[in-house]
Design brief:
Layout lengths: L2 E3 L5 E4 L3 H12 L4 E5 L12 E2 L1 H9 L3 H7 L1 E3 L1 E6 L6 E4 L10 E3 L2 H14 L4 E3 L1 E8 L5 E7 L5 E4 L3 E4 L6 H5 L4 E5 L3 E12 L9 E6 L3 E8 L3 E9 L9 H12 L3 E3 L4 E5 L2 E5 L3 E2 L2 E3 L5 E2 L7 H20 L9 H25 L6 H8 L4 H10 L33 E3 L2 E2 H4 L5 E7 L5 H15 L3 E7 L12 E2 L4 H6 L6 E5 L5 E6 L3 H11 L2
Parallel strand pairs: 1-12, 2-3, 2-13, 3-9, 6-16, 13-23, 27-28, 28-29
Antiparallel strand pairs: 4-8, 5-8, 6-7, 10-11, 11-12, 14-21, 15-18, 15-19, 15-20, 16-17, 17-18, 21-24, 22-23, 25-26, 27-30, 30-31
Helix pairs in contact: 1-4, 1-7, 7-8, 8-9
């Protein structure tokens, strides 16, 4: 074996799964070249995750890739909990979500990766398969040295990337290099086994496409859900050791028959898998120029299907920040907000999935107690909001979000998700947020504030250029002179959500669709303070 230098690109991404591909897309969209490596021989042919939830779909829209998910994924609107012996089911209903996507899309993880990979390569990216990260060293000056082994030839490369991000999963080499501690809790005594398989069903089979069906007994849970191309995911959670789990069609058929009799017959599986489940959270996401993203930083129960979504949302948060730092538009300190924002989300996701796990897979716990948990007031609404990803917001602390002299407006504030809203029949807010930079949404309604609004727009361009794009929205029926290039809204909805009740307002929306600042334009100095804290 020999060691040889390789041409360096600004960012080395370790792992070509959903988080690594999403990060690569977000970097390339902003003009940052990234090298993506993976120790596998090529794309995966099996799948664990099968749900793409509402918040992830919103972010995929901003990245310009949601249409293929819409075309290829099945629409899922509910998750039904059937407890053995109970007359009524507990339904999680996603159709009431305040989103353009009041549902989730069901498709296998390999299809999700294929869509992301196509977008990544379409932007000019390439994946180096059969490249295993062996070690990562961080020098005294913060310099990064990585050894990468070609798994075919055994040749070892020495890479010195300016930045390195570990999207290398639950056994992350990169996370180990950070010197981080991991809080890990095993769901001991629980074995998970699953398969993707075609089904032959009788007309009286009660499970329909369009949702996830859970059948829960004291010591076992059976999940069934339709996937594209006539395949169904069948997952069984029960007591025992995963190493002894039986993945034969005969064993799966026996469990299915316990609930459905002879109403359904399993065909030949496309694949089968066995795994254990745990909760894990690493103590840090960053050490200088080395970061972790996705499952490298956290792990949780599969209840609700939030793992891949949380990982991809990590990448959306990190991508624009890392690009801004690489370009020299923002100070390195901006990356501290990545851990400060995303690690608390991982804690909340872990807590939420644990609550669902306690209801669905706490085998041995009396069913009456688990049903009582699922029927507590607020349980279903809370579960839907968490699973969809719409419940989570970022902590609004520091000068970026709370500059001196700022008077907080009621309603949306810094750290909140920016809800999509129709501005005109042909224009929605999220269509404007597809730009790679920040969007400054100025809601104009007060003629006496017009001078402040005009001055604000005039000052932005020379100071921040392409990094901040101002958009002025006026109220319907506005007959007075309006700012140049302003858009007249067809309703007051955008002003109600993002404006002020009595004057003009400015709302700074980040590239990942969260609010950075919201103020009256008469307080535009607070906006400039927030912008200066974000940009170098």
């Amino acid at each position: 074996m020999s060691s040889s230098p390789v041409p360096e690109r600004p960012v080395l991404v370790v792992g070509a799964g959903p988080s690594g591909l999403t990060l690569g897309i977000e970097l390339l969209r902003r003009g940052v070249d990234a090298r993506v490596i993976d120790k596998l021989d090529g794309p995966v042919t099996t799948s664990r995750s099968f749900t793409v939830h509402a918040r992830t779909l919103e972010l995929l829209e901003l990245a310009g890739v949601v249409d293929e998910f819409q075309d290829r994924g099945l629409r899922g609107e509910w998750m039904d909990y059937h407890f053995h012996g109970a007359a009524e089911k507990v339904r999680l209903d996603f159709t009431g979500l305040d989103s353009r996507y009041p549902y989730y899309r069901a498709l296998s993880q390999k299809d999700t990766e294929e869509i992301l990979r196509r977008r990544f390569t379409g932007l000019g990216g390439a994946i180096d398969w059969q490249r295993e990260l062996v070690t990562v060293d961080i020098g005294p000056g913060g310099e990064v040295t990585a050894t990468v082994r070609d798994t075919r030839s055994g040749r070892v490369e020495t890479a010195r990337p300016p930045w390195l991000v570990g999207c290398d999963g639950v056994h992350s080499t990169v996370a180990t290099s950070l010197g981080a501690q991991a809080d890990r809790v095993e769901y001991a005594g629980t074995a998970m086994r699953m398969m993707d398989v075609p089904l032959r069903v009788r007309p009286d089979w009660p499970v329909q496409a369009g949702g996830v069906d859970y059948r829960v007994t004291r010591d076992r849970m059976l999940l069934t859900t339709a996937l594209p191309d006539g395949v169904w995911r069948v997952l069984i959670s029960d007591t025992g050791d995963a190493r002894d789990a039986d993945t034969s069609v005969h064993a799966f058929q026996a469990v299915v028959d316990e609930h459905f009799g002879g109403a359904v017959r399993l065909g030949t599986p496309e694949w089968t898998s066995v795994f254990r489940t745990r909760r894990r959270l690493t103590s840090r996401y960053r050490n200088g120029r080395v970061l972790v993203c996705g499952d490298a930083g956290h792990e949780r129960s599969p209840a609700g299907g939030q793992g891949m979504n949380t990982s991809m949302q990590d990448a959306f948060n990190l991508g624009w920040k890392l690009a801004a730092v690489v370009h020299g538009d923002s100070p390195d300190a901006l990356l501290d907000s990545y851990e400060a924002e995303r690690r608390p989300i991982a804690e909340q996701v872990n807590a939420g999935t644990h609550e669902l796990h306690s209801v669905l897979m706490n085998h041995g716990m009396p069913l009456a107690e688990r049903m009582a948990l699922a029927r507590e007031p607020g349980f279903t609404d809370r579960a839907v909001a968490r699973i969809s990803g719409l419940a989570y917001r970022y902590p609004a602390t520091g000068e970026i979000y709370a500059p001196p002299g700022h008077t907080r407006l009621d309603g949306l504030g810094a750290g909140d998700r920016a809800p999509d809203v129709e501005i005109t029949p042909r224009l929605r807010l999220y269509e404007m947020l597809r730009r790679p930079g920040h969007t400054l949404l100025i809601t104009h309604r007060d003629p006496s504030a017009a001078a402040h609004t005009a001055a604000l727009v005039h000052r932005l361009s020379p100071q921040f250029g392409h990094r901040v794009e101002p958009v002025v929205i006026t109220v319907p029926g506005h007959h007075r002179p309006i700012p140049a290039d302003a858009i007249t809204a067809d309703s007051f909805r955008v002003h109600e959500l993002y404006g002020a009740p009595d004057t003009d307002a400015a709302c700074l929306i980040r590239p990942d669709g969260y609010l950075a600042h919201r103020c009256r334009t008469t307080e535009h100095h607070t906006l400039h303070t927030a912008l200066r804290a974000t940009f170098a």
